[in-house]
Amino acid sequence: MKVLITGGAGFIGSHLSERLIAEGHSVTVLDDLSTGRTENLAGLSGHNRFRFHEGTILDPALVGTLTDEADMIIHLAAAVGVKLIMEEPSRSILTNVGGTETVLKAALKDLKPVFVASTSEVYGKATKFPFGEDDDLTIGATKNLRWSYACAKTLDEFLALAYVREADLPATVLRFFNTTGPRQTGRYGMVLPNFVQAALEGRPLLVHGTGEQSRCFGHVADAVEAMVRLMATPAARGEVFNVGNDEEVTIRALAEQVVAATGSPSEIRLVPYETVYPAGFEDMARRLPDVSKLERATGFRPRRPLSEIIA
Ligand code: NAD
Questions:
Q1: Which residues pair with residue 5 across a beta bridge?
Q2: Separation between Cα atoms, residue 1 and residue 162, nearest integer Å
Q3: CA–centroid distance, residue 77 to ligand 1 (Å)
Q4: Which of 97, 171, 202, 302 has fewest C-beta within 10 Å?
Q5: What lines the ligand 1 site, CB under 6 Å?
Q6: Cβ proximity of 167 and 108 under 8 Å
Q7: Beta bridge partner(s), residue 116
Q8: Looking at this predicted complex, what is its ipTM?
Q9: Could you tell me if residue 89 is inside a domain?
């Protein structure tokens, strides 16, 4: 297959690119290098089945040309990261909604299969755990200052599913939960790389709030495995899937595990949200995926343990 990966120079996209090339596919990456890096794709440079295009998903002509040349589109490009989104909410909305619409419209022309990256943040302040794909999305109820990102991703989902219903577009929505592993940087506020870096440098690990908020961390290799299997599953078209690991850990316990794994002398310091975020910030207390739908469709359930992810 010829696969177009938007955002392929980023963390998840670069791992997916490597996997697809290793399986014999051709890969074209479209990325504006805003958070992605060409170094992430260094292992593929010069490969005869790999092409890199520096450009934006906001360019309909470019997206159209690259989509015409592809058999399948994996749309990962997005303005990502807590810090970036809070500093530039309008960019998050413009890129994440406008760019996704451009990609979906290009795919619509010949009804190409397209996978759209969404996020666990669409579950907003949901209080029923674990989060199932058919649960209500309560994003409108949240005062979370990452609202622009969560809303934009929710609109992306609605847009993709509208094209599924109206035009039979073979689109699949991937709701990623915290995905982490090699190449993810802490630059934009990702908690695990930040903790690991602080521990390795002997700096304090700053845990926001009480540290009792929990998350589930999935290994990027598991996310890639899930994507590769869904790509090969025609019944997945038109569906939404949670992609994540359901091993839950509090942020305080995560910090403790990082300190233990690195043998670091770093202290773990609790810092109030107000000292890190603008007033009004509300964090999600838990984010726990139900991944049984993914397992039923593909026979695969992300399982790599947190200890392996930290290592
Ligand atoms: P990332 O920042 O490493 O990757 C995003 C890529 O998109 C970057 O390479 C960036 O340069 C590129 N990009 C941004 N705007 C662009 C534009 N206008 N045109 C072309 N390229 C552009 O982040 P990631 O963690 O690899 O995320 C990939 C996708 O998965 C994103 O859509 C993100 O919202 C989603 N997601 C990731 C996680 C996670 O935990 N990593 C969780 C939920 C959802």
A1: 29, 74
A2: 26
A3: 5
A4: 202
A5: 6-7, 9-13, 30-36, 56-58, 76-80, 95, 99, 117, 119, 176, 178-179
A6: yes
A7: 75, 173
A8: 0.99
A9: yes
- Read off the pLDDT of residues 259-293 as tens digits, 9 standing for 90 and up: 999 999 999 999 998 888 777 777 888 999 999 99
Nearest CA to ligand 1 atom 1: 10
User: Does residue 199 form part of some domain?
Assistant: no
The answer to whether the CB of 202 falls within 8 A of the CB of 273 is no
Ligand 1 pocket mutation, candidates 5, 6, 12, 58, criterion most atoms within 8 A of CB? 12
Residues 6+ apart with CB under 8 A from 307: 257, 261
Instruction: Report the distance separating Cα 166 and Cα 145, nearest Å.
Output: 33
Query: What's the Cα-to-Cα distance from 149 to each of 97, 128, 201, 224, rounded to whole Å?
Result: 9, 22, 31, 22
257 is a domain residue: no
Residue 191, domain member (yes or no): no
Q: Shortest CA distance to 208 belongs to which of 156, 110, 284?
A: 284
**Residue 213 CA, ligand 1 centroid: distance in Å:** 24
Q: Decide: residue 206, CB within 10 A, 0-12 exposed, 13-18 middle, 19+ buried.
A: middle
Residue 145's pLDDT band, with cuts at 50, 70 and 90, is low
Range of the domain at 235: 2-180+219-246+289-303
Give the nearest ligand 1 atom to 179 CA. 40
Tally of structural domains, the chain:
1
Q: Which CATH number fits the domain that encloses residue 101?
A: 3.40.50.720
Q: In this predicted model, what pLDDT tens digit does every residue of 10-42 receive, in sequence order?
A: 999 999 999 999 999 999 999 999 999 999 999
Q: Is 163 a catalytic residue?
A: no
Supply 288's token pair.
Answer: 């726990």
Main-chain phi, psi angles of 119, to 5 degrees: -150, 155
